[in-house]
Design goal:
This protein has eight helices and seven strands, in the order H-H-H-E-E-E-E-H-E-E-H-E-H-H-H. The protein is of the alpha+beta class. It has two domains: 137 residues, Pnp Oxidase, Chain A (Roll), CATH 2.30.110; 36 residues, no CATH class. It has a seven-stranded antiparallel beta sheet, with helices on one face.
């Protein structure tokens, strides 16, 4: 098998994109995108730094945590994480972002590409209050492209199918895996203890 090295080689292997697959890309959010975002509970942000190094980072929250400001503006609150700040550093470097948004039980996804910035304006953070807490900042996305992605990938993966669910115990705990990866010597934190600890930190701003 040879490597595919040109767009011409690639295109020769596939049929042309269907007309509606091309036309569905919009420069703004319509009411269907807004309705979809109101139900989103999980998203993945893709960013890169000035050297082209890539990062993909998950975001999650209760339905409604994604805030639509207008047809070209979406904000996403930042809550406690690992403090690596890879996504944020990349946004400061390039201001570019691609995101995919998922609704549990819905096989289609929403994709948004645009320009991102970091904002801590009270006008934005105040919109993201949870249990009396407010995020330190939000990711402010100016939408350049928005379109619905077909259901095939999630259908192939049976992402929402009960029979596809994996029991957590088939893998080592997170802390057991990290212990092996970074050479820790202390006992690994049990999974149930870790989950209980995370539960108290879900909306922390530390």
């Amino acid at each position: 098998m040879s490597a595919i090295e040109t767009t011409q080689q690639l295109r020769s292997m596939y049929l042309p994109a269907k007309e509606r697959a091309v036309k569905k890309q919009m420069p703004r959010l319509d009411h269907h995108c807004r309705n979809f975002l109101a139900l989103v509970r999980f998203a993945v942000f893709s960013t890169c730094d000035a050297e082209g190094n890539m990062d993909a980072s998950p975001r999650g929250g209760e339905a409604g945590f994604i805030k639509v400001i207008d047809d070209n503006t979406v904000i996403v609150p930042d809550w406690t994480g690992n403090n690596r700040l890879d996504t944020f550093s990349n946004i400061l470097d390039t201001g570019r972002i691609g995101a995919i948004f998922l609704v549990p039980g819905v096989d289609e996804a929403l994709r948004i590409n645009g320009v991102a910035s970091l904002r801590n304006d009270e006008a934005f953070t105040s919109l993201c209050e949870v249990n009396g807490r407010f995020p330190k900042l939000v990711v402010h996305i100016t939408v350049k492209e928005a379109y619905l992605h077909c259901a095939k990938a999630i259908m192939r993966g049976q992402l929402w199918a009960p029979e596809a669910k994996v029991e957590r115990k088939v893998l080592p705990t997170m802390n057991e895996m990290l212990r092996d990866q970074i050479g820790q010597t202390e006992p690994a934190e049990p999974q149930e203890v870790m989950r209980a600890r995370h539960q108290t930190e879900l909306y922390s701003t530390k």
